[in-house]
Design goal:
The protein is about 45% helix and about 15% strand. It is built from 13 helices and eleven strands. By secondary structure, the chain is of the alpha/beta class. Helix 10 links the parallel strand 8 and strand 9. This is Glycosyl transferase family 1 domain-containing protein.
Amino acid sequence: MVPIDFTKGNFEQGKARVKRLLQVLEVVRDSIRLGTVDIVYLTVSQSLLGNLKDLLIMIFARAPVVLHLHGGGIYETVFRSHKILAEFNKRVYLKKVKKIIILSDSLQSNYPFIERKDYFVSIPNFVSEDLFMPLQGIERKFHTSEKLKVLFLSNLLEEKGYREIVKAFLSLSEHTRESLELHIAGAFENEGSEEWMSDILQKSCGIFYHGIVASESKRELLQGSHIFILPTYYRYEGQPVSILEAYATGNVVITTDQGGIPDVFCAPENGYLVVKKSIQAIQRTLEEIVKSFSIDNTMLLQIAIKNSEYARREFTEEKFSENFFTLIDEIMPVDDHNEVVLKQGPREN
């Protein structure tokens, strides 16, 4: 197994990108020469230049290719506006690609030129074992909290809906806001967004920004929250792992039907579905949640417990590995050799 990291860098890292590409081609060349490659596993790039790089690797490879689409944006970024390139991809795929791993069934729409459904295998994202919250902890946080903590945890891209969340929170009555806390964590996309949030924080109570969180601080935020909110309309949305992490930590989820989310989220079983870009929809949902919680907190608790059980059943690392290696075993030739793995960056948040 030969891992090669294709994590995206900035413009100053252009030379490093070229170096990594040359490194990949050298590995493919050497592996072909030595006859050691049985499968080429390649995480799909969702940019124009990245797609050209993927095509080069597939053309050079003389072994079955398994593609893994981690997001949901390659149709929008590449195929939709580059019809000739899409047709070329189709020819290469049909000749070289054995299977395409997608996060969920609805993301097949990224490949409209592939009619054979047996090309696709759905393997969802997974949640790290250390994030799963015990049942007693979930029950305790709902029974002992005076305020409901609402958490937005994602990159602070405008299309992820964080501005609509803040505006909806500020539009609530003072009485309703007294029952809530809004917690936001993630990286800003630009200085303007950061300045906007800074101005909000100076003028408003009940809103807390935690910056970029990871490891223990991320786990504490998720496990300490009651409601996870992601009203995304991000055009490249795949299957946000943050929603699965919210399930595992006993959160009720508020989200939209963007991308592959409907494959892992159903209202009212997992929480509340809101209209995209709608401040009013988020406001009404928060009002409904506060009213329900003030009358009887067991309804939210039951959803949170079901979400935790759902995550434990469907989104563990063990299940992901089992599904992944079962697929590889099905494709692997009878004679065992070495496998070359081409790795490109982290999972989608």
